[in-house]
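Changelog-adjacent note: as of this version, every example in the card shows the full chain rather than a window. The one below runs 395 residues end to end.
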Amino acid sequence: MTEPLWLTDPMRCLIDPIDAKTFFDDYHEKKALIVHREDPGRYLDLLSIERIDDIVANRDLRSGQLDMARSEPPVSPEQYTFETGYIDRGGVAEQYRQGATIILPQLHMNDAVLGEFCRNMENLLSCQVQTNIYLTPPHNQGFRTHYDDHDVFVLQVSGEKYWRLYDTPVENPYRGEGFRPEDHAVGEPVEEFVLKAGECAYVPRGLMHDASTHGEEASLHITLGLIVKTWADLMLEAVSEVALNHSAFRRALPVGFARPDFERDQAETQFKELLGVIAKEAELESSMDLFVDTFIRSRMPATAGTIADFNLPKREGQAFKLRRFAPWRLAGTDKSVVIITAGGEVHFPLAAEPALHTLLDGGVVSKADFTEISDEEANEVIGKLYAFGLIVPAD
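Full-length structure tokens:
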């Protein structure tokens, strides 16, 4: 059975026929990309209206797990939420009937398919990837014109949506630097298009946009949000590390600095001296290593099958390969080899290192490849690799 494209090549699933290099050179954080194609069922393996119906009808959702929006007239949580905080399924259906959009924020946290898709994208992009799901009935609009504070891919699952793109009043806004309608006047659209089922659009953060359903069918789309770390984040960490080694950074600001009669000349001199220390001593390597390790550790491990088949690593002759898109970094101490991976770190005997290198380099390993340790230790190594989602059975 052929595996779905989102599982084997998630970027191609989004931007094909544009290649990844062209996307990152010409579009990423610069301008919108609209990918038109004749492939209406492209994203049905990820989601469908029937699955949305099942989720609303059969899960005890709470406020925050389901939201609703309508540009005019607005819809309030009281219209689809009980006083207990649980979602009123009848209220949701009624508001949807009256034109409100059903929103399922962060559905990837509770959906195996979307969760795996996001994990795969996270491994490729080295950023947090999240989903928000929008189901809008025909002839309606969920949100007014706005911009997002993170880049998004919009995957049109079914139906059609009419999009309008405007100016970019804030280039690469910070996370949390939301759209303020009183500060950003919406002029005429600079681009308009219809996104059909199976098509995808990339919208960089800061680009104002709005969208409404097009045609006689409901519109279902997945918004894939990219939550990135910025150069500013990295620089702040580098400055923090320099400050650990120089007490001058940890001294109090001058006494009385907030008074109207405070003279700043001396403070300016000291400020420039500290900038000089930063320029001389700030290093990329240690700060980047910290960001790498923090990112990898904070990911959710992929462990499907590891409980149902917990004894698989003990099967004689069973071979394993590295799980596709599993995040890892090889580290170590004087006493053990360490693989930093999703959820934390896993320790192994130093003598297991040659076979671990074979595995991490894309090879296939079994218990017999751990020649420098005992069978019992080899079983333990493979068991750990399997339990933490780093390996899967080889074909």
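Structural remarks: The first strand starts at residue 33 and ends at 35.
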